[in-house]
Amino acid sequence: MKKYIFLLLALPFHRGLSQSLSVSTCNTVAELNNPGYSKAVDLQEAMEQLVSRGIPGCVMAVYSHEGWWTSSAGLAKIEDQTVMQPCHLQYLQSISKTYLAAAVLKLVEQGKVYLEDPITHYLPKRISSQITQVEKISVRMIMNHTSGIPEYNQVPAYVSYLLQHPDHFFQPEDYLHYIRNKPLDFIPGSKYSYRNTNYLILSLIADQVTGDHAQFIRETIFKPLGLTQTFYRGSDGYLTYSNLVNTYWDRFSDGYIENVSSLQRTNVASLAGDDGIVTTPVEAVKFLKGLIEGKIISAATLGLMKQWVSDKKGNPTYGLGLDHATFVGYTGYGHSGGGLGAGCQLYYFPDKDVYIFVAINLGTVTESPLHKVSSKTIDSIYSILLK
Description:
Layout: H1 2-10, H2 40-52, E1 57-64, E2 67-77, E3 82-83, E4 90-91, H3 96-109, H4 125-128, H5 139-143, H6 156-164, H7 196-210, H8 213-222, E5 230-231, E6 248-249, E7 258-259, H9 261-270, E8 278-279, H10 281-292, H11 299-305, E9 309-310, E10 316-318, E11 323-327, E12 330-338, E13 343-349, E14 354-360, H12 369-386
Antiparallel strand pairs: 1-2, 1-14, 2-3, 4-8, 5-8, 6-7, 9-10, 11-12, 12-13, 13-14
């Protein structure tokens, strides 16, 4: 481990940005780490290789027929050498969409939301009036990214404001101002194109139906699954937890990383529906496992989540908050997430009956030579896990 810490310390930092936050060590649950797991040595070596190539820290949780295995490599905070542990909280970023989708599908089961309804049935005029051709967009189209609504976080005015005002907290409806009355990108329902805006709007729909979509998620997902280390908007002490990792960003895509923990925290705290959940690796897997095993929604409703739309090449790509992906020839159901200071993947592989969550505390939404040199190692993790 020491040789990898040395390499991290050797990484140059830009002097202009330092936003470190305190982070502490934590108590890893020993019984969730099978020391005899057959792939433990190879997976550990792969994580340490990621760190040796410049990734600050990496953490993983696996559930298979051999039980639980969790481990980590590198640092939760470079500046004071806090070692990354499996009990550290990780930013889920867009994996949060799957949680919201599951909650909305609970509302579908309760007869409070209908997938084919236009979203105007659930949104007040002040919101729906900002969306072009809103009467043609259904709840299903929002959930499977076929709505055609533009992406708010690709609007230069939003990106500029975010970076120039790193301490500014946005309200959910603020994001809609950046796409107000803009033309749709395509005819609703005609094709798939991933948009964070869709799940922002879905959270506003859920707010109208439940009064507080975050509280509804806590009551219908977190509590039934016993997720005591999973937090979302409105949770006590939200994002001030002592075991929440520091996060880093290659701002200029030149291999120099900076601590952007303050910006990351403020940004994530502002997001609703499309982002916002932090959790431990084990609890991320417990969520997906509970979803697949019918502990949140019924098997029939899970089937709705797996009604895939296709990408430009005609391949199945996305359902209702659930991603359809292929890794080393094996199909996985789950989601990935990326932000200014973090990246992660959460998938279930039905052919192998295995779950995995893997996360790093380095931003993945901009290009970096660090990503390029580590991409083969990420591929090797799936090869080790699935072959």
